[in-house]
Amino acid sequence: MSQAINQQATTMKASSIENQFTSSAVNQAQIDVLNQLLKPEVQESLTVLVENLPKLAEMVPYLTKSYDVAQSIMTDRVLINDLVGGMQEFVKPLEGKIKECAAIAIEANDWAQANQGTTISVFGLLRMLKDPQIQKVFRFIQAYLDLTSEKQEKK
Fold it and tell me: What is the DSSP letter of 115?
């Protein structure tokens, strides 16, 4: 019987010590919170937050809906794959044209570098003016300059 009493006493002492540690940890956490609340910038922030609570309460449902929509979009693999496929269909034709233009520009630069020693005469320029591609470029340049001039006059 005395063993049972000693065991109960030991158990009670252990639980009392655990409660003291727990309550001291809780007390320390409470002291930390109180120290934070005593800071003027924290008090100002809390005041602003309390003043704006009605606005925040109105915004919360919209933010929740927006979050739900964003979350469903981010987890929907079919939608993501469709978007990626659509973008690729849009980009592939542009990619081909850009590569073609870059290749032509590189080839033209190489050709111009190779023919660097030759000079273009006035008659050579007049002959070039008859070329339909040159005429097309000049029409474009003229239209571009007219439009930029018109836009500058409006400003």
Answer: T
